[in-house]
Amino acid sequence: MLAGDLYLADDPELRELSLRAMELMEAYNRTSARTPERRREILTELLGSVGEDIDIRPPLRVDYGNRISIGSGSFANFGLVALDVAEIVIGEDVQIGPNVQLLTPTHPLDPGPRRAKWEAAEPITIGDNVWLGGGVIVLGGVSIGENTVVGAGAVVTRDLPPNVVAVGNPARVVRELDPGA
Q1: Residue 17 lies in domain
Q2: Of residues 15, 35, 52, 107, which has the active-site annotation?
Q3: What pLDDT, in 10s, does the model give residues 62-115?
Q4: Mean pLDDT in the chain?
Q5: Which of 7, 23, 60, 112 has the fewest other C-beta atoms within 10 Å?
Q6: What is the domain count for the chain?
Q7: CB 55 within 8 A of CB 71
Q8: What's the pLDDT at 104?
Q9: Among this protein's residues, is 138 annotated catalytic?
Q10: Residue 181 lies in a domain
């Protein structure tokens, strides 16, 4: 599964991991902004790796959680969906707008395997100091280079280099940024 191989999502072991994640998500999503220590405690249990000084505003939705790492100083606004069938790496100082979706699962194009409930997944990597505007969708197999800005509503279907602005569906580079600015 993590290597991009086909798997069945209703595997009993995966089902148990998913139920664990759902319980932790429910607890996290009920927390108050006035209880940052409790939020961090839950995130540390739910996610694979949690950097210092992060802020993820509820609601948060994940498949398993343990395949997500988020670097120090990063922020995710309301409604992050991070389907972590494969690894999701979020760098340091990343800004994630509301209702962003990070989607690692893929499905066979052929109808037979899809009907049989086979799935696969590809990882997502988001570099340091990236800004994902509201409603951005990042598909599996994508890497976004450091300092890149992805405009609101963009659908990122392929890698984006560092130090650019990308917009649209599919996302395309419209401007280069000065990394020293």
Answers
A1: 7-176
A2: 107
A3: 999 999 999 999 999 999 999 999 999 999 999 999 999 999 999 999 999 999
A4: 96
A5: 112
A6: 1
A7: no
A8: 97
A9: no
A10: no
Strand order of the sheet with strand 155-156?
60-62, 80-83, 101-103, 137-139, 155-156
DSSP label of 176: E
Mean pLDDT, range 115-123, rounded to an integer? 93
Report CA-CA distances (Å) from 78 to 60, 117, 118, 174: 7, 31, 31, 27
DSSP string, 62-108: ESSSTTEEE-TT-EE-TTEEEE-SS-EEE-TT-EE-TT-EEE-EE--
Long-range CB pairs of 148-157, under 8 A, 24+ apart, other chains included = 148/177, 149/177, 152/97
What's the longest Cα–Cα distance across the chain? 52
The number of residues in the chain equals 181
Residue 32 forms part of a structural domain: yes
Answer whether residue 1 is part of any domain.
Answer: no
140 DSSP assignment:
T
In this structure, what CATH number is given to the domain that contains residue 134? 2.160.10.10
